[in-house]
Amino acid sequence: MQTRRRVFSGIQPSGNLHLGNYLGALKNWVGIQERYENYFCIVDLHAITVPQDPKILRSKIREVAAIYLASGIDPEKSVVFRQSRVPEHAELTWLLNCVARFGELSRMTQFKDKAQKGGAESASVGLYDYPVLMAADILLYNAHLVPVGEDQRQHLELTRTLARRFNHLYGETFVVPEAMILKTGARIMALDEPTAKMSKSSPVQGSYVAILDEPDTVRRKIRRAKTDSGSEITASPDKPAITNLLDIYGGLTGVPVPEIEKQYRSKGYGDLKKDLAEVVVEGLSPIRDRTRELLDNPRELDEILEAGAERAREVARSTLHEAWTRMGLD
Ligand code: TYM
Hints:
Number of helices: 13
Order of helices and strands: EHEHHEHHHHEHEHHHHH
Number of domains: 2
Strand content: 5-15%
Strand order of the largest sheet: 1-2-3
Helix content: 55-70%
Oligomer: single chain
CATH topology of the largest domain: Rossmann fold
Bound molecules: ligand 1
């Protein structure tokens, strides 16, 4: 009998996890895990929608698992697992593929952006279908809430559309989930280009602070972060760089941005950057150290992931069977 509401979320094991992933997703997950029944997934099937080096992918999967745990996800309270270890994700994707429409997938801005970069003609079919796999992830667990960053809003809308359409065509089957997007930290911007979001796939190291960056690297990256013209420390649309730095500061300390602005009223950009660098170092160092410790014992990590997959499979199997039955495939 399900008593607590369910939460599902995931991160791709591609590239280096960064401050945006931490503030937009992970920190939020840790904050809510006591209240819900949680499923936190390492979405490795999503990662292969663009080419990955198998050796690197293998190690990134463990690294992401270690970062989840080091950030405070407790495998006693949350189910932590790999998407590829629960075949129902791919199976439900097929059923939903037959409900999703070509037009609505073509309108996904993330696909359009990514396909544009590499040329739409050569984008994989997997990349195009990515949002349907994401919908399957969420609907398999009948999750009520999906804590994500702002960039996932459109994918969540599609998930809701697919759930409603399926329910309408075949009878009530899926919970229609809601996005849970925080005010602070939901859209962290690149340090070198504050009008673009901080991204794992950026080739420019200085554009993001990785969760596993060493303190001196963090300090250097923040020192070199782009600033705006003028000298006043305020969050406003004409100051995207300073707004971003304030957002990071607020996200990590929990201090509301107006308070931080007040604190820095008679100070300069240099003062803000210097203090922010220490805030980031302090926030990330314990996570980095704990991640390293966990990675020293990969057997234990693998066991946690395997146990998580077993628990996830139980729920996933029953939802998939229900969907099969509704569609006449039983
Ligand atoms: P991914 O791996 O790109 O990012 C993982 C999480 O980090 C958030 N995020 C950010 N938040 C704030 N500022 C940023 N610059 C920033 N960059 C990333 C993302 O919003 C996300 O919450 N499609 C998803 C993974 C996924 C998923 C799911 C999420 C697959 N299935 C089911 C939720 C539920 C993705 O690519 O996230």
